[in-house]
Amino acid sequence: MLEVQEGQNAEVWTEHEIAVRDHLEQGQPLSEETLEWLLSRFWRETPYKDNGFIIEGFPRSPEQVRFMAESNYLVDLVVMMTVEFESVIERLMPNKLIHWKAREAKKKENKRRLAEWKKAKRVNCTIFFFLAQLLML
């Protein structure tokens, strides 16, 4: 057991829990001991053993596949989905971020329209000034 200080709260974490945290935060690979600690409850304990469960993104490497086979962690079904990056972003993006993107797009469009209007105004003023000078001649 290790003590982890975070602010004023002190928690006692096992080495496996720290390894899982490091994996999630920094992408550190998990050791076979940590994988065994993590997976054993899902394969052998109720309710997971009786009802089943889903593991997303695992195994990720040939070593993890070998570990699963050697540990007799055999899966019933593998589902592999291929989706467009934009679809994933749309599904995961919170509504507020979607609204923010819409507002930003509207601001950009308004800036474009204003620039066009100013350009047209300059052209019209130049033409008007030119015509006024012609009439004075």
UniProtKB/TrEMBL annotation:
Lineage: superkingdom: Eukaryota
Q: What InterPro entries does its record include?
A: P-loop_NTPase
Q: Report the protein name in the record.
A: Adenylate kinase active site lid domain-containing protein
Q: Which organism is it from?
A: Protopolystoma xenopodis
